[in-house]
Amino acid sequence: MSSAAAEILALYGARGARAYFGERVSMTEHGLQAAHFAQAEGAPGALVAAALLHDIGHLIASAPDAIEEWKSDAHHEESGARWLAQRFPAEVSEPVRLHVAAKRYLCATDARYFARLSSASVHTLRLQGGPMSAQEVRRFEGERYWQDAVRLRRWDDQGKVAGLKTAPLEDYVGLIERLALRRKPARPRSLSARRRRSRAS
Ligand code: FE
Q: How far apart are the first and last CA of the chain?
């Protein structure tokens, strides 16, 4: 098994059984359900993996279990995306980085979306800065992976069904390993560009 797959199984094994903040599913069930809905829509493998791993930031850092204790946003999307970017291509890490912004985006652009948010999700929306301004909406739509992030966000919101039967985590090991192989090492071109810059200065 690749080291990324082993690390992911270990993280879910150690912390995945905890309740997903303020919802009736565990962290592991939540990720599996998001991936399940992504697959049901025929999403590409990288986006299925992004759905599965979108909350990995909660597993690598500990936040209080009770959502009422959240005094500020823990920025789990950034820590999670950084962790994923070291192991997977941008098609996996970028939608994860943007999935909280996608919620603020949807709250600003889709009135029906806001009406359907769970109470826990409304609570975190406030900590996350509320709905986006028109300027933030334009900036968000300039992100390369913004549409993937919006799709991921909807699966994230769906993945809170108590008792839903899904495939087990182990079924995703093959996908995780294939994607980890696709991560491109830092390009030599940027290295020489850096050298040119340092010579110039
Ligand atoms: Fe989530």
A: 45
Residue 200 has pLDDT above 70, yes or no: no
Q: Where are the alpha helices (DSSP H) in the chain?
A: 3-15, 27-40, 45-53, 56-60, 76-85, 90-97, 99-109, 111-116, 119-127, 134-140, 146-158, 173-181, 188-200
pLDDT digits (tens, 9 = 90+) for 102-111: 999 999 999 9
**Cα 41 to Cα 50: distance, rounded to the nearest angstrom:** 14
The CATH topology of domain 3-200 is: Hypothetical protein af1432 (1.10.3210)
Which residues are near ligand 1, the ion (C-beta closer than 5 Å)?
55, 156
100 Cα–ligand 1 center, Å: 9
User: What is the 69 CA–ligand 1 centroid distance (Å)?
Assistant: 18
**1 has pLDDT over 70:** yes
**How many A from CA of 54 to the centre of ligand 1?**
6
Could you tell me the pTM of the whole model? 0.85
Percent of the chain with pLDDT over 70: 85
| Contact (CB, 8 A) for 151 and 43 | yes
